[in-house]
């Protein structure tokens, strides 16, 4: 064997050795990297896996754990580590102090919810639609309920029950007895008080002493859910404050009862960038709309429509009926309020679109296409209690390109709201008060009561049949006013109360409040001339009750 | 009460809320085909005053889809036509609660 051959062999050997070692080193390095990654994942999981929630939820969870309004994750971590005491909720100017009723405070450390909360929310948490993640989202959420009537009471009750973290409650009205058949948060004892206070009492707790800090648990009668923070607003929503208030919340519920507030709330939601769950009810029907969802900037066509997109023109002011005028069935408005709470829960607990599945850790460096947000299909749910089917879902349009609030051409701005140049009362119109009839066409209830009851005059009651059957004066004839003068006069002639008006007998017209009766007198003058002696009873049966018969039913 | 099927050559028009109060009816069967843009004229003839009192502020749906009457009118000949058997609904806003 010559020397060169030996050297060559040696070189080849060395090269092979180096290549082999390098390959081994690469393998070792890769193994190390993988081991490091595994160790890191394990460490993260160990830290994050406090009772069953994945690492990607940790930030959100820490926010929910924090009792204070600002979500200071760093401080929370220090508290978890025992470096700082648990935060004491500071009673803010608008917020009701949080009650600690029986250990519902989340224990720092192992579990994100308190023992009582697992028990309280367990029935909804075991469903995949909610889960622990959804419950924490609810706990983190701030929802504003505007209006605490037939819609707001059930909506607020179900949201409080579900564990929404902060519930804003706004209403400037006081409780009346006529509210109690449908406004389930209010009760006989709270009649005359603010609806907001009545609702807080129902939802949270009755606090005997205003000096809350010194009251012991025996001073508190806990109600539906004392874990929720309640923020009362004891006034109606005003345009100058609306956007600033809405900005403090994640979601707004319109539970009001008038077009002016419906347009204002929708506009403020667009400007504050909040989704809106709007519902309404009258008589036996209701409507439910999820608007401005997802909330995007005005002009962004990928967002859902606002109230103005669906109803750009308000109904004429004189055609608007309140629940007091048109009537309302308790469960009808209750159903709509409960549906609002349901939509709110669905919006708040909606899972973010899942990231694309990771098959190999090596793929981390690869570009992945961003997840596609599913298109939101806006709908309006209509409820008609006495129709078949009772429910109808209507597919709505997208945003209007010329919408006054949510298009590029929007004229409704924060400035126009603050300065009052967007005038909701002017936009929705106001009812022109009736020109009162001349005195000779009217009679007071007291004077009418003194007239002889010997058949020398005729009393015409123009309320509808249903009201007439609740209470009526003996000898009166019921001819309901339906807004059509000609039809009413024809009906009256047919029924005989206008025939033979040359007999000198006088006709008296009465209604519930004294408005329709004036219209009827005008109708008679228009169609039968001034030969008919006809007068209306001023103030209708309300005046009758006040001035003549205290026992007359006030409905 | 449920709405009877539209007779041949007609479509069903459903009334809700204030539209029910104004017409005192739950539904009508009207002759089809009818351009959406012409619907309110037909209704105004049947129920004088309904356009100002009810229709101008209402939403309209055809087979559960929201339809903008003004936009359809602006499209002229190309505007949507209500066909035999369609279900059309007049939906005034309910604002009470």
Describe the structure.
The complex is a heterodimer of chains A (555) and B (97). Chain A has 555 residues and is α/β, with parallel strands linked by helices. Chain A has 19 helices and 15 strands. In chain A, the strands form three sheets. An eight-stranded mixed β-sheet of chain A has the order 5-2-1-6-7-8-9-10, sandwiched between helices. In chain A, strand 9 and strand 10 form a beta hairpin. About 11% of the residues of chain A have low confidence. With 97 residues, chain B is of the alpha+beta class. Chain B has a single domain, classed as Roll (Ubiquitin-like (UB roll)). In chain B, 29% of the residues lie in helices and 28% in strands. In chain B, the strands form two sheets. In chain B, strands 2-1-7-4-5 form a five-stranded mixed β-sheet. A two-stranded antiparallel sheet of chain B has the order 3-6. Chain B is globular. The mean pLDDT of chain B is 94. At the A-B interface, strand 7, strand 8, strand 9 and strand 10 of A face loops of B.
What layout of secondary structure does this protein have?
The complex is a heterodimer of chains A (555) and B (97).
Chain A: H1 3-48, H2 58-65, H3 73-80, H4 115-125, H5 131-140, E1 142-146, H6 152-162, E2 166-170, H7 195-203, E3 205-207, E4 220-222, E5 229-233, H8 239-246, E6 251-254, H9 259-272, E7 276-282, E8 285-291, H10 307-310, H11 323-326, H12 330-349, E9 379-384, E10 391-395, H13 414-419, H14 424-428, E11 442-443, H15 445-450, E12 457-461, H16 465-470, E13 477-478, H17 485-494, E14 506-510, H18 516-528, E15 534-537, H19 540-547
Helix pairs in contact in A: 2-5, 6-12, 8-9, 17-18
Chain B: E1 10-15, H1 17-23, E2 27-31, E3 34-35, H2 36-46, H3 50-53, E4 59-62, E5 65-67, H4 69-74, E6 81-82, E7 87-91
Parallel strand pairs in B: 1-7
Antiparallel strand pairs in B: 1-2, 3-6, 4-5, 4-7
